[in-house]
């Protein structure tokens, strides 16, 4: 089914559509009460993310108003993770004379798989898993809005927190693109 977008005064009623790319930083470490017989996973870095489609409508706050008293943003952003994280893991230890003996660390993309597992707590449908709605409007210092996601990695971690920041892209003449 095709949908026709009406026009008012030569302007489309639907908001502009944006695409873009960026990175998500990750840092993985052991839980506070880590048991020496459990695998040790750790690492940090960034993975690329692509915004496939975003609808952004920003209403600026009146001059002199603070962030809490004015302005709003209606944002829907469909994104995808394009790479794998680069942590290391010792895997399951083996026992020797009733003591845990660690294996040498090997590459293990823990954060990437746990991020996807955490999004699966919401839905297993990709269009829902990777759709960000209900952003918190900021409207200051080039930041339009933020969105915080939290999960327990499907029960595999204590907590996973990801914060998305939508900024004005100064290279595109003030048009928000990521």
Beta-strand percentage range: over 45%
Helix content: under 10%
The overall pLDDT, averaged over residues, is: 79
Structural class: mainly beta
Nearest-angstrom radius of gyration?
Answer: 21 Å
Strand segment count: 14
Unreliable stretches, pLDDT < 50, 5 or more residues? 1-13, 173-178
Terminal Cα span = 29 Å
Overall number of domains? 1
Order of helices and strands: EEEEEEEEEHHEEEEE
Number of helices: 2
| Overall 3D shape | elongated
Biggest sheet descriptor? 6 strands, antiparallel
Secondary-structure topology with pairs:
Elements (H helix, E strand, L loop, with lengths): L6 E2 L2 E2 L4 E12 L12 E19 L12 E10 L6 E2 L4 E3 L2 E3 L4 E2 L2 H10 L6 H4 L1 E2 L3 E5 L2 E9 L8 E10 L5 E2 L2
Antiparallel strand pairs: 1-2, 3-4, 4-5, 4-6, 5-10, 6-9, 7-8, 11-12, 12-13, 13-14
Task: Describe this protein's structure.
By secondary structure, the chain is mostly beta strands. The protein has one domain (16-176). It has two helices and 14 strands. It has helices spanning 110-119, 126-129; strands at residues 7-8, 11-12, 17-28, 41-59, 72-81, 88-89, 94-96, 99-101, 106-107, 131-132, 136-140, 143-151, 160-169, 175-176. The strands form four sheets. Strands 3, 4, 5, 6, 9 and 10 form a six-stranded antiparallel β-sheet that branches. It has a four-stranded antiparallel β-sheet with strand order 11-12-13-14. A two-stranded antiparallel sheet has the order 1-2. Strand 7 (94-96) and strand 8 form a beta hairpin. The chain is elongated, with a radius of gyration of 21 Å. It starts with 6 loop residues before the first strand and ends with a strand. 15% of the residues are buried.
């Amino acid at each position: 089914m095709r949908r026709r977008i009406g026009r008012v005064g030569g302007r489309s009623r639907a908001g502009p559509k944006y695409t873009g790319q960026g990175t998500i930083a990750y840092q993985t470490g052991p839980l506070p009460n880590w048991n020496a017989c459990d695998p040790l996973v750790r690492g940090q870095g960034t993975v690329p993310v692509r915004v496939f489609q975003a609808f952004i409508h920003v209403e600026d706050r009146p001059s002199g108003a603070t962030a809490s008293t004015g302005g709003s943003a209606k944002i829907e952003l469909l994104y995808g993770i394009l790479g794998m994280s680069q942590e290391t893991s010792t895997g399951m230890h083996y026992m020797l004379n009733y003591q845990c003996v660690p294996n040498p660390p090997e590459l293990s993309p823990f954060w990437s798989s746990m991020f996807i597992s955490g999004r699966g707590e919401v839905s297993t449908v990709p269009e829902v898993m990777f759709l960000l709605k209900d952003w918190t409007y900021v409207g200051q210092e080039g930041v339009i809005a933020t969105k915080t996601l939290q999960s327990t990695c499907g029960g595999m971690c204590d907590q996973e927190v990801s914060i998305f920041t939508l900024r004005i892209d100064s290279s595109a003449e003030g048009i928000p693109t990521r």
